[in-house]
Structure formats: structure tokens, C-alpha cells
Amino acid sequence: MMSSENRSHFSASCFGVTEEARAKINLALHVTGQRADGYHLLDMLVTFADCGDRLSFLPAQVDAFTLSGRFGETLAGDGGTNLVLRARDLLREVVGALAFPVHIHLEKNLPVASGIGGGSADAAATLRGLTRLWGMSLPVETVAGLALKLGADVPMCFESRPLIARGIGEKIEALPDLPGFAMVLANPLTGVSTPEVFRRLATKTNPALNLAADLAGTAGWLAAIGGARNDLEPPARELVPEISAISAMLQADGALLTRMSGSGATCFGIFSSMAAAQQAAAALHDARPDWYFQATETVSGGM
Asked: What is the DSSP secondary structure assignment for residue 174, as one 8-state letter?
């Protein structure tokens, strides 16, 4: 039975809250070293798409977790749900008695384990959503510590805005000048092992990401992104040849720039306009209806 204190929160929060878990796009990913504990040191240029998963949080008599969405079935067992539930439980340890039971619903629209931060974005959205639902105002450093406990990508997904992330992902610098891009996300729905991708890296001490201080406008940023790289893409292509095929398809349909995101297998193509991206996504879906294609826009630094 709920305590009188929890009942008052139930009443005050009866409408629940919703959080978007935007897809995280690695516009660039440079592997610059490796720590003694095995974690790789990275320089990442990151933005976020206006598509992604969606989580809703509603007061309940007992904790519950449900799934829907195109890829919800993939998580019907225990895979992939753990980060959401771990985020809930970690935050509850901090909040204590005020953390009344909650029904969390995850609408899983992004492919699982696909290099666009789906699970990390879901965990970050859980921290944001439950903080709101439970009426908490926590110190920034407390939330940042919880996010990092959940995974190296979670702090940047908590920010969910254009940024540079260094170290293992915890050193974050906002990029207010990064413009939004029209984009197609493409995934052959073939699994790729992140540990195996890192194992196959030819070198783990690659040049750092260096961006000019005076970058301006879409053309300037596109040129800078084109001069960067994803060091994980060559080994990922060895493991999953479909990555090369899907990148070629994006180029053939008019992408100005293509690259793999994260450790794969999602690739992105940047297009001249949203109309061009939508047209390309439709054509690509017609060609391979068994793969994942999504036209989207990324958020700008000014949001």
C-alpha cells in the first residue's frame, strides 16, 4: 500500500510525463588512446535527431514496465530493458521515499544496438522523466554521476544537444553554433559486435579531433565533418559488409556526406534539404523494405 506521502505525489502527478529519447549521431568519432582499465579514449562530434524512442512515466500502485514500437518485440525478453530499469533504480536510491512506484512505457522506434545510442538515450530520458515525475531538483553533479554509472554515452544523451565529448564520453563541451542537418538514418538490421570492432582497430592512438574555432554556416560545418572520420568504420565494414552497401546506396540517392555512426551498423547521409532526405528514404525503403531507413532533421546547437 502506498504511504500517505506517496499518495499525495500520486495525486499531484496523476497525468504523468513523457520524454523523447533522441537518436544520437556520431558525426565524427576519433579513437585517440586506451586507458589502463581498458576504456578507449575518444573524441566525438555528436548531434541528436528529432526521431527516436519515447518514454512515458505514470504513477502506479506497483512498478511496471511495458513496451511497444517497431523494435519493442526485440526487447520483450531481458535484452535492452536493463538500462531503463537500472536508471530508475539508481535514481530511486538517491530520491528515497519520495520515489513512488511508476509505470514506465517505452515506445522502441530505433533499432537495438545500432550505434545511435538507443539504450543510452532511453536511460537518459528515464533520469530526466523520473526527476520530473518525482518532483526532484538534484544537483547537476549528482545527475552527471548517475548518468556515467549507467554508461559512457548516457551523459551526452542526457544533454541531448550538439556537443563534443572527450575522454570516455564524460568530458562534454556544448556546440551552440552547430547547425541542424537534413539526414537519412540507414541500418541493414544486421548486428555488429562493438567489442569485436574495437578489437580489430588497426591502431588505438589516432589523431585527435581538431575543429577550427571560426566554423560558420552549413557549408563550413559540412567541410569540417567531411575532414573528420569514424575510426570504427573500417573494422565494422569488415565485420558487416552491408555497411559498405548501405553507405553506397545513400550516396547514390544524393547524400552530400555519408558516414557510420558509433560502432555501427547505422549509417547516416546528410542531404541538401528535408524534402531530398524524405525522397531518398522512400526510395531506399522501396529498394530494401527489410532494412531501416528514417528521414529526420538534427537539432541545431541553438535548439
From this structure: E
Q: What is the pLDDT of residues 210-229, one digit of tens each?
A: 999 888 889 999 999 999 99
> Which sequence positions are flagged as catalytic?
24, 153
**pTM listed for this prediction:** 0.91
Write out pLDDT tens, residues 220-272.
999 999 999 999 999 999 999 999 999 999 999 999 999 999 999 999 999 99
In sequence order, what are the residues at sequence separation of 6 or more whose Cβ sits closer than 8 angstroms to the Cβ of residue 194?
A: 113, 263
Write the CA distances from 274 to 24, 213, 255, 269, integer angstroms: 18, 28, 12, 12
What contacts 245, CB < 8 A, 6 or more positions away?
188
Element (H, E) at 47: strand 40-59
**Residue 213 identity (one-letter amino acid):** A
Which of 183, 245, 225, 191 is CA-nearest to residue 52? 183
Q: How far is CA 1 from CA 58, 133, 226, 283, in A?
A: 17, 19, 58, 54
DSSP 184-224: EEEE-S----HHHHHHT-S-S-PPPP---TT--HHHHHHHH
Diameter of the chain measured on Cα atoms:
62
User: How far apart are alpha carbons 56 and 45 in whole angstroms?
Assistant: 29
